[in-house]
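Bit of a strange request maybe. I'm writing a small parser for structure token strings and I need a real example to test against, not something I typed by hand. Could someone generate the tokens for this chain?
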Amino acid sequence: MIGSLSKKIEFLTPSRVDDEAGGASLSWLPGPEMWARVERLTSTRDVAGDRNNSLRRIAANLRYRADIPLGQRIAFENSQYEVVSIESEDDRRLTLICEEVLA
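Reply from user aminoacidic:
Good idea to test on real output. This should exercise your parser:
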């Protein structure tokens, strides 16, 4: 890929699997890939109980798509990220602000 969209990101598709107890679990399966420009952003802190986690954040700039909801997950460089903000100045480009999903 030539130009500023030089990194591949992969959208992850949610899959709900029912269990025998009447509940369900959600897993994320590989989905479509897109070219993007990815920038690392300042990390944020997540305090959960006695743990103080540092969450990595990225901004993924890509061609405009109208089908990306908040909460969508993407895979980039062996990590999963959740889309927490979607920004667009026009119908040509889109910026996804994403936070790393900790296992």
